[in-house]
Amino acid sequence: MHRSTAGWTTATPRQKARIAATLAVALLVGAVCAPRAAAQSYTPGRVDYDIVYVRQPRYGDARETTWPEVFHPGRIDPGADLMLLHPDGREEILFRGGDGAVTDPFVSFDGQVVYFSYFHDVRPSELNGQREYLSRRGADIFRIDVRTREVRQLTHGGFAPNLGAGTWDDANPVDPAPGTNALGYGVLNLGPCPLPGGRIAFTSNRYGFTPPRGYTAPTLQLFVMDEDGSNVTAIAPMTIGSALHPTILRDGRIMFSSFETQGIRDSRLWGLWTIQPDGRAWKPLVSAFKAASAFHFMTQRSDGQIVAEHYYNLNNNGFGAYMAFPLPEAGAPAFHPAVPADNPEIVQDTTWRFQMPFTPRGAYALTPFTHGDDNAADLGKVTHPSAAPSNDVLTVWTKGPANDLDRPSSVPRVDAGIYLMPSGRVVTHPSELILVKNDPAYNEAWPRALVPYRAIHGVEAPAQLPWLPNDGRAHPLLPAGTPFGLVGTSSMYKRESAPGHGARAFDGLDEFNTSENDSSSNWAWQGADAGKYANGDIWAIRLVAMEPNTHRSYGPHEGIHFYSFANERLRILGEIPLRKADGSGPVVDAEGNPDTSFLAKIPADTPFTFQTIDRDGLVLNMSQTWHQVRPGEVRTDCGGCHAHSQAPLAFEGTAASRSGYQVWDLSKVTPLVSHDQAGQPSLTVVPSAVVDVEFYRDIRPILQRSCVSCHTRASANPPGTLVLDDYTMHTIPELRYNGGSTTAPGDYMRLAADSGAEWGLRPVISNGEWRQTNASRYVRKFQSRRSLLAWKVFGRRLDGWTNEDHPTERVAGDSTTLPAGADRNLADLDFTGTIMPPADSGVPPLSAAEKSMIARWIDLGAPIDTANGTGHEGYGWFLDDLRPTLEVSSPRAGVNTSPLSAIRIGVADAHSGIRAGSLSVTADFVVAGRPRGAELADLARQAGDGIYEIPLVPQSLPRATVRVSVSDAQGNVTRVERVFSVP
User: Fold this and answer.
1) Contact 38, 435 (CB under 8 A)
2) Which residues contact 35 (CB under 8 A, 6 or more apart)?
3) What is the per-residue pLDDT across 742-786, written as a single tens digit (0 to 9) for each?
4) Do the bridges between strand 484-489 and strand 634-635 make them parallel or antiparallel, or are there none, so unpaired?
């Protein structure tokens, strides 16, 4: 992909010329203007401190090296060493890479210890070419005391897959015994980041997940452990895409890069998020709204500003451009509006500028001489920013194209060195960088100032935030030790869910089926509106649970055995009506709008998202990211739908914040929007924790009963040429990843997997395909309001427009019958004929519940269990692929300053439920007269919803361990090993 405006910017003539590859001959060889006479020697300059860095191999100007980046964070060349560079230019090897490789160094707050990741063996013979060339030996986290050179390994693999989702040997992810599942690659423990209070954040694939969609491998999630490697805790179960490089902020939060490919967003998007070290209060810092770009590699300068890199994945080897911005002020909107034109211009490549929705306020280009796009750079590119004293930033810069493709050239290959960006100043040309180290025989990477935290930030360490209190004080519905959390919001009228871009005739929404590439951001980059609607159409909020995908890479039931538009399992937690009334009429909020607040109780550590729905239960818009609450957490601060640039309405004072409000317990029941006999909205409450909708079980029976009598192969002219009794298995044409099953029957294909228009009436655009977010003529992905199938079963057009608003061909599928002069790219479908099945068809009509079932099926991604009728039964759509929630709130990890009177445990499960009798508790000290290691679960007494306590006699415990495990009905096991002490 050339540097693409992707609908966000207008290229200058100079930019268009570059895209057309008509650069001057000098650019073909990557010539630059920056002085390079001292490139091979250390230049003292302003640097009077030691620097640690990674010395990576370099293979000359003609052969590229492998740099870990968002596309392949687990790949690196062997022989990368951890180096110590002194101010006088002398250097020492702190840790040799050998057959492995060092990466991700991070300096302790006292400036004496360096944490780093080490790939044990990345020689070509030890990589699995069938699995993204990941290392069979994996990677672990180490620390080295620079004074004594003492090295300690802190992690040792730690493979812990979902045991109910496969047959696993959790001691061997690579090559276990026959009949056992395997990843075929090792556990990657990466990105160590020290935290105040003696903990370390890191990322790991130890749970054995694969991203729902491609463009990275494997799924890395956020964990925190103690300094000695104990008390490993998953703090972000919601990161089922992937996460990289946790980085501590001065205020105690962690910022990290997150794979933002939820739903049907472009699968190359990475943004920056923040989260507290215990997993609470996550929020976006820079969301991925620059088309096809990753925000990754970041630091916080002395002045508190964030420096973040953005780059196009894969082809740039992680090199790009820097943007800087301050952290938002408390109470102020953090971002500019959704419309790109209302956002600041970020200068790239001296003259080119990009604008993107929701740019952080105060953002500006820190390196305007370069860019982060997928073509050669005139003046090189940068990567690996790191804060240094005096508001300086250490950086890696390479001359030349810094791109693997001939756009217009890929040589000379990366020749990276360490440079200083002085005093927080904007660098307008590489000659303004101060050379620190550039040996052409190596690539220097990951520079870190070996100084105390105070030397950069003026304080001894970042703020230490409280660790998951869960003490019963957050809300009466969350007693101490609860495994649940509360989620809500103040107003659904506060929304910026429209894409803010597109043809004006469509009110800013995307055209129905244009042949134009990137004509709108809707559902792909920014925005997720399903048609034209007003705030008055908002009726309820749907909470949707989400599950990761276990990577059964090899062995029994290999692959993924379901299909949906997002390749992720979505299950309904509940649909909560938002409209409220009292004796005097509608309840209004503090801004004078109808009160649309809500509050719900859900199992903690369960990824979920939101869908706003109308009176028919059809999606109006959808949040396109994962959410979570931790045990005992209350989240009511989102303030609306995508409303990033607005000051949120305070939750306090809304109807949902008052004591009389009915808080739905979505761990026990699932409320669903329904209709009474008069057609008025009502509510049906299903006595289960989740509700699934799936094609074979729920949709096909409706089709067979009420549709196939007309829509049959036996008819020479089935209505609309739609055949719904073809059960021949076909290959789903959409590219799937990770070995997923790719076949489905003909009835499903025609409705939900016919983007190539292989069956039935064809689209009128020149491409001859169903494009944009259309899965077929009948279904638009996640948008039942814009789906012809839903229109026909409801008996009316549902998307907010009329047939007359847009041109439509007179004869379906015949572009020559469009109105004279009409642009076929503006054509849509009309609702014609009658409700289906017609009243005189002789088959039973669809009930209100069945119509809603079809709409929910579309809005959940049209899932189909491709394990149905195969040897993979039970490993498809209905597989519970999320381990149960297990909260050990007492004892606390580390030092317990109060006497320990009980072991307190909270258990919950959002899908299959907790397996009776599966709780296990042991201790390495005597409890109730039972010896060390004895089972204690039978001593547990219920102390609340999902909360159990085992009484203890207070005693001094210098170092003790409690081990707890529990299983869900699927067989997934969660284990907690709590290491603690009591004075």
Assistant:
1) yes
2) 431
3) 799 999 999 999 999 999 999 999 999 999 999 999 999 999 999
4) parallel
φ/ψ region of 224 (left if φ > 0, alpha if ψ in -120 to 50, else beta) reads: beta
For the chain, what's the residue count? Answer: 983
CA quadruple 560, 564, 567, 573: dihedral, nearest 10 = -110
Cα 107–chain centre separation: 27
Cα–Cα distance, 836 to 841 (Å, whole number): 9
Cβ(95)–Cβ(150) under 8 Å?
no
Question: How far is 36 from 52, CA to CA, in rounded Å?
Answer: 23
pLDDT of residue 9: 33
The dihedrals phi and psi of 753, each to the nearest 5 degrees, come to -145, 50
Q: Which single residue is written with the structure tokens 């609450």?
A: 629
Task: Write down the pLDDT at residue 331.
Answer: 79
CA-based R_g, the chain, Å: 29
* 3 state SS of 90: coil
Structural contact between residues 714 and 723, judged by C-beta atoms closer than 8 angstroms = no
Rounded Cα distance between 867 and 877, Å, is 8
317 contacts: CB under 8 Å, gap ≥ 6: 64, 65, 66, 67, 69, 402, 404, 414
Q: What distance in Å separates the CA atoms of residue 829 and residue 720, rounded to the nearest whole number?
A: 13
**Distance separating alpha carbons of residues 329 and 146, to the nearest angstrom:** 38
Q: How far apart are CA 837 and CA 843, in angstroms?
A: 7
Find the Cα–Cα–Cα–Cα dihedral 685, 690, 691, 696, rounded to 10°: -160
Q: Going by C-beta distance under 8 Å and a sequence separation of 6 or more, which residues neighbour residue 296?
A: 69, 70, 244, 245, 257, 270, 272, 308, 309, 310, 311, 318
Q: H/E element holding 850?
A: helix 848-859
Cα separation of 221 and 219, whole Å?
A: 6
11: nearest Cα among 737, 494, 518: 518
CB neighbour class for 167 (10 Å; exposed up to 12, middle 13-18, buried from 19) = middle
Two structure tokens written together for 532: 């034209």
DSSP states of 15-66 as a string? HHHHHTT---HHHHTT---S--TTTTS---TT--S-EEEEEEE---SSS---
CA 564/CA 544 separation, integer angstroms:
15
Distance, CA of 868 to CA of 741 (rounded, Å):
11
How many other β-carbons are positioned within 10 Å of the β-carbon of residue 582? 8
User: Which pLDDT score, from 0 to 100, does residue 39 have?
Assistant: 34
Quote helix, strand, coil % in the chain, to nearest 5: 10, 30, 60
* Beta strands 664-665 and 598-603, pairing class: parallel
**C-alpha 616: how far from its chain's center?**
29
From CA 347, how far away is CA 357, in angstroms rounded?
15
The torsion angles phi and psi of 507, rounded to 5 degrees, stand at 55, 35
Q: How far apart are the C-alpha atoms of 55 and 444, rounded to whole Å? A: 5
DSSP letters, 611-670, are: EEE-TTS-EEEE--S-B---TT-EE----SBS-TTSPPPPSTTSGGGSTTS--EETTT-E
User: Alpha helix (H) ranges present in 134-272?
Assistant: none
| pLDDT tens string 463-484 | 999 999 999 999 999 999 999 9
Q: Which residues of the chain have pLDDT under 70?
A: 1-45, 501-504, 642, 734-741
Write down the pLDDT at residue 930: 97
Helices (H), 142-279: none
**Three-class HEC string of 415-468:** CEEEEEEHHHCCCCCHHHCEEEECCCCEEEEEEEECCCHHHHHCCCCCCCCCCC
Q: Which two tokens stand for residue 331?
A: 């109470």
Tell me which residue has tokens 């969301």. Answer: 287
Nearest to 598 by CA among 667, 547, 649: 649
Please give the pLDDT value at position 36. Answer: 37
Helix and strand counts by DSSP (H, E) for the chain: 7, 52
Q: What is the SS3 string spanning 763-807?
A: CCCCCCCCCCCECCCCCECCCHHHCHHHHHHHCCCCCCCCHHHCC
Q: Supply the pLDDT for residue 38.
A: 34
Instruction: Tell me the C-alpha to C-alpha distance, in Å, between residue 639 and each of 427, 488, 528, 535, 635.
Output: 37, 9, 17, 15, 10
